[in-house]
């Protein structure tokens, strides 16, 4: 099992499993926080480095919704880390040897409809637009997702995906936790002591023939629809985080984040925690802010139940928090976007009678507002599926 959280060549990679928690439901954040605190209380730590991410570290991926679904924390036996030019290795118990086998290619990749096809996704968007327009402004945004199944002719090696995603999307957080692999541009929360920050993304455009990135970026900044959608997301995050902070800085205007496949409106929110660090651990903060309007909707309490009704599928851990947390409650949690959940990773030989290839369920979504156009929303999610599709196909 690969465990990874890397951005621009820095981050954490782990292997082995010294301890693991599987949890689900509305109490998943509380259960995870309690389990992690108790476990860290029984670990004797020798840490000569003293940076966030040193000592015991759990990689975590939590389900999007409160209904039963898999959420996990994994304490690796070995963790390698790099931050600001400092490198370290953390071992727990007798450290296993790393996997030195060559990275395997997935062979031929083919695609089939997931649980919500492109046609069904368009219908869901159309219905969401109708409901918002009929609400008289009470329901302002619903975030809907679409999935796609990729089948590989050879066993699927997570490292192949991670390497390709990191190479093409170095400014995203490339992650792998319990079979969920992706590259997210959106940071739900980072905590270092009293400092906390978040990167909110909402409002998207994508390259078009005959249009430069500068022209597309200018149109994105001038788009009332996208600016409004982005404001919902930034306000949602700030409103939920502000009670924990003595200071909170929220820029009045977004910037444009440029990726290979899309451009996003982005706002970096920064704050200083008012409570003692131990009283505002990362998982506790994440429970308070998840889901933001960027992945849920506005108002969240109305939009999230509607998501389940319109999509008619279980998102699992897509759009949930993913990342790492250390023994002091520091860490980084992104939002699990541009990702795939590996559902089959067989290594059975051709003559063994077992399935040889792999299967991964890919996800992408978009924020729907009353003036959204269904055809454009379908085009947007297809653009957002490109990172994992191209990583699977080995596109350079």
TrEMBL record:
Swiss-Prot/TrEMBL keywords: Isomerase
Alphabetized Pfam families for the sequence: Chorismate_bind
Catalytic reaction equation(s): chorismate = isochorismate
Molecular-function GO term, any one: isochorismate synthase activity
EC numbers on record: 5.4.4.2
Record InterPro entries: ADC_synthase, Chorismate_C, IsoChor_synthase
Keyword Cell division attributed: no
Residues of the Chorismate-utilising enzyme C-terminal domain: 119-384
Protein family per UniProt: Belongs to the isochorismate synthase family.
Protein name: isochorismate synthase
């Amino acid at each position: 099992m690969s465990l990874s959280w890397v951005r621009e060549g820095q981050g954490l990679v782990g292997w082995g499993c010294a301890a693991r928690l599987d949890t689900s439901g509305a109490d998943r954040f509380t259960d995870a926080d309690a389990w992690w605190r108790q476990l860290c209380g029984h670990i004797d730590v020798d840490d000569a480095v003293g940076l966030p991410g040193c000592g015991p570290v759990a990689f975590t991926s939590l389900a999007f919704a409160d209904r039963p679904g898999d959420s996990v924390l994994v304490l690796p036996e070995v963790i390698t880390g790099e931050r600001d030019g400092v490198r370290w290795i953390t071992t727990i118990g007798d450290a296993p040897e790393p996997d030195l086998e060559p990275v395997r290619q997935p062979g031929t990749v083919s695609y089939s409809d997931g649980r919500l096809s492109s046609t069904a996704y368009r219908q869901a968007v159309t219905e969401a637009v109708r409901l918002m327009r009929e609400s008289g402004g009470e329901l302002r945004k619903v975030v809907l997702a679409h999935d796609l199944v990729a089948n590989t002719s050879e066993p699927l090696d997570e490292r192949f995906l991670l390497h390709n995603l990191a190479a093409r999307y170095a400014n995203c957080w490339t992650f792998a936790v319990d079979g969920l692999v992706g590259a997210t541009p959106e940071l739900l929360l980072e905590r270092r002591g009293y400092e906390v920050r978040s990167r909110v993304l909402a409002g998207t455009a994508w390259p078009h023939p005959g249009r430069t990135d500068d022209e597309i970026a200018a149109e994105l900044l001038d788009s009332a629809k996208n600016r409004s959608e982005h404001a919902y997301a930034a306000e949602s995050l700030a409103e939920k985080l502000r009670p924990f902070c003595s200071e909170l800085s929220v820029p009045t205007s977004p910037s444009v984040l440029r990726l290979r496949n899309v451009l996003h409106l982005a706002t970096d929110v920064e704050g200083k925690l008012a409570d003692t660090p131990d009283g505002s651990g990362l998982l506790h903060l994440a429970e308070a802010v998840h889901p933001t309007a960027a992945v849920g909707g506005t108002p969240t309490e109305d939009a999230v139940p509607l998501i389940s009704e319109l999509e008619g599928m279980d998102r699992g851990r897509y759009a949930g928090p993913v990342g790492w947390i250390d023994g002091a409650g520091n860490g980084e949690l992104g939002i699990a976007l541009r990702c795939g959940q590996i559902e089959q990773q067989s290594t059975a030989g051709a003559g063994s009678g077992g399935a040889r290839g792999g299967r991964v369920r890919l996800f992408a979504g978009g924020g729907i507002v009353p003036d959204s156009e269904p055809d454009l929303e379908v085009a947007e999610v297809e653009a957002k599926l490109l990172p994992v599709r191209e990583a699977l196909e080995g596109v350079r």
